[in-house]
Amino acid sequence: MLPVKKILPAASNSLTLEINVTPGSKRISSFQKTIHRYYEIHGRSLPWRSTGDPYHIVVSEIMLQQTQVDRVVPKYLEFIHRFPDFHSLARASLDQVLALWHGLGYNRRALSLKKLAEKVIDTFDSRLPESIDELITLPGIGKATASSIAAFAFNKPVVFIETNIRTVFIHFFFPEQEKVTDTEITEMVECTLDRKNPRKWYNALMDYGVMLKQNHPNPGRKSAHYKKQTPFEGSHRQIRGMVLKALLNAKVLTRKQLLDKIDREEHRVDTALDHLIAESIVIKKRGKFSIA
Fold first, then answer.
1. Phi, psi torsion values for 212, nearest 5 degrees
2. In contact, 169 and 211? CB cutoff 8 Å
3. pLDDT tens track for 83-117
4. CA distances from residue 20 to 35, 36, 123, 180 in whole angstroms, order as listed
5. Is 78 considered catalytic here?
6. pTM listed for this prediction
7. At 8, is the secondary structure helix, strand, or coil?
8. Measured in whole angstroms, how far is the alpha carbon of residue 8 from the centre of its chain?
9. I want to staple 167 with a disulfide (CB 3.0 to 4.6 A). Which of 26, 76, 220, 281 is the partner?
């Protein structure tokens, strides 16, 4: 890789200094040692970190999208017990998958995960592909998720960013800067990447990011891409969840029966139903709604 020379803020004060941020530079080596040392002492023990099974790691990656770890762990363990491999998930009915997924939110992820399992069986001979180009052809998998799967499932030295990683790099390398772009951060992620063990390195970065958020004003707010999550109470996401819960419990309901069970404005329930039908999660047949 060609040398990268940037003007970076000094971590200890507001001065700036010109440094060579190629792998092996003193600043980079010190940063890597700090992250590794923290992980050796404080690294979290998470169930998907103790397995090399690509299926298990895919499940964890999809569940962890926009969802906190403490909510994911029990659902992940339950999900893996019920659907231990691509074959069992592909054969399951959608209502079985959604019933187990309930509580994690963003239910379209469950549909995508089931379709992903089906495609792995049908297209890739039951083996999760290793290349990013093939991974992004799977339902619900974008470039960032494909890269994280490549790193965690196959220990590939790929470059990607997620919220905790973004927090770490802003804290260390852009402490005085506002509106830090992901392009700037990506350069630093590539320069600091542990190419011998990227899986361990990314786990360490994420754990350090969690610590920073707990002990400092969230550096991630300085990101040019930062967006404050809207409250769940009263949101469209909440109404979608209420509709799905009602249908999972009753199996089949008319519109009036749904409205009786969901204490929300009629037009908002109708909107949620329209979206769920468009996503092939819910079907309407003879005036009645059910899980697809």
1. -60, -45
2. no
3. 999 999 999 999 999 999 988 988 899 999 999 99
4. 20, 21, 45, 19
5. no
6. 0.80
7. strand
8. 29
9. 220
Mean pLDDT of the chain: 87
Q: List CB contacts of 291: < 8 A, sequence separation 6 or more.
A: 94, 95, 98, 244, 247, 248, 251, 281, 282, 283
Give the DSSP letter of residue 126. Answer: T
Higher pLDDT, 78 or 218: 78
Identify the active-site residue in 40, 61, 134, 233: 61
Q: What is the pLDDT of residue 2?
A: 38
CA distance 80 to 84: 5
Q: What is the pLDDT of residues 41-89, one digit of tens each?
A: 999 999 999 999 999 999 999 999 989 999 999 999 999 999 999 999 9
Q: Is the pLDDT of residue 234 over 90?
A: no
**Euclidean distance between CA atoms 59 and 50, whole angstroms:** 14
**What single-letter DSSP state applies at residue 228?**
P
Instruction: Please state, as a whole number, how many other Cβ atoms lie within 10 Å of the Cβ of residue 173.
Output: 23
**Residue 278 corresponds to which tokens in the numbers above?**
């468009």
83 contact partners, CB below 8 Å, separation of at least 6: 89, 92, 97, 100
First-to-last alpha carbon distance for the chain, in angstroms, is: 49
CA distance 227 to 254: 37
What's the token pair of residue 24?
């092996």
Distance CA 204, CA 152 (A): 12
Residue with tokens 């139903």: 273
DSSP designation for 231: P
- In terms of average pLDDT, the best of 7-11, 55-59, 242-246, 285-289 is 55-59
DSSP state of 223: B
Whether 5 contacts 21, CB under 8 Å:
yes
Q: Measuring CA to CA, which residue among 49, 44, 114, 53 is closest to residue 279?
A: 114
pLDDT of 163 strictly over 70 = yes
Residue 273 one-letter amino acid: L
Q: Residue 222 has what DSSP assignment?
A: G
